[in-house]
Specification:
single chain; 138 residues; mainly beta; Immunoglobulin-like; five-stranded mixed beta sheet; four-stranded antiparallel beta sheet; elongated
């Protein structure tokens, strides 16, 4: 049976107008895999497959009435073929508690590319951004 990674955890994140500790981890199926986003000293890029389900947990997501958006920004990695776009706004996300659940898009153009996951939460106080690190889509 193929073990499917449902998510991965990150050690820290960058938030706009909120402390870094407010964004805690990605939720994995049954366990957490910790890694530091490259902007915070980590170099690990977590491999995922198209169609996999992931979840990112940030404290600001739990605000009642908040609008949550997930963006996959393509990283400029040497040797990766250009796709014709720089980012993908994910539209099939579901918020549960302080986590947003989403599926890695099954877009052929994203195969064998590295992306940065960012979660944007907009509420009455403004917009915060949670940097969930880098993923390599298989």
């Amino acid at each position: 049976m193929r073990l499917v990674l449902i998510g991965c955890a990150f050690a820290t994140c960058m938030l706009v107008a909120a402390p870094a500790s407010a964004c805690q981890r990605l939720i994995a199926h049954g366990h957490l895999i910790n890694y530091a986003a490259s902007g915070n000293g980590g170099t690990e890029i977590t491999p995922v497959d198209r169609g996999e389900e992931l979840a990112v947990e940030c404290a600001s997501i739990g605000t009642p009435g908040a609008d949550v958006s997930v963006v996959m920004a393509l990283d400029p990695v040497q040797g990766e073929a250009p796709t014709g776009y720089s980012a993908v706004l994910l539209t099939d996300e579901h918020v549960g508690g302080t986590a947003v659940h989403f599926r890695v898009p099954d877009m052929p153009d994203l195969a064998h590319h590295t992306v940065t996951i960012r979660v944007y939460v907009t509420d009455a106080k403004g917009t915060t951004a949670c940097d969930a690190g880098h993923l390599r889509i298989g």
